[in-house]
Amino acid sequence: MTDVLTETEAGTQSEGQGFCCSKTRRAVLLGAAGAGATAVLAACGTDTTGTNPNGSDFAADPEPAGSTGADAGGGSGGDSGGAAGGATLALAADVPSGGGIIQGDYVITQPTSGEYKAFSKICTHQGCEVNEVADGTINCPCHGAKFSITDGSPTSGPAQKALTETQVKVDGDNIVAA
Hints:
With 178 residues, the chain is α+β, with helices and mostly antiparallel strands. It is 17% helix and 22% strand.
């Protein structure tokens, strides 16, 4: 049984059977539902805080979260991959030769004695955070991707792109963004 009367059905019913009032009540309820739906849809409009007020400022093939480089909190440092120039990333004594550490937003490695590298700790596969530096690789726990401590390139697993590198230098006892 349906709740909607066709025009021919409505014409055959008499007002004494209560159909006059149910049509009015139905119209009010449908009107209220329509107004509520309009309010909900208006609340789901595009965000106008981006660069395009139509909400179309997006990439068709976005990079994984954090893949444009980690930030040490001091702003952008030009070609340094996102770290502020001169920002201290780690103590040189804390980074083992032939290995590395995860410090803040970075993986800092020392592939050979006295040579330091820094990479984003965000895996380029699906944006997970790498969690280990062992046996010459930087390892991601999510899907098993492994990256070279020398250049951040993927050595195994599903990742196809290298970790974003930040140029670093030694300044006294510190490793700093160059």
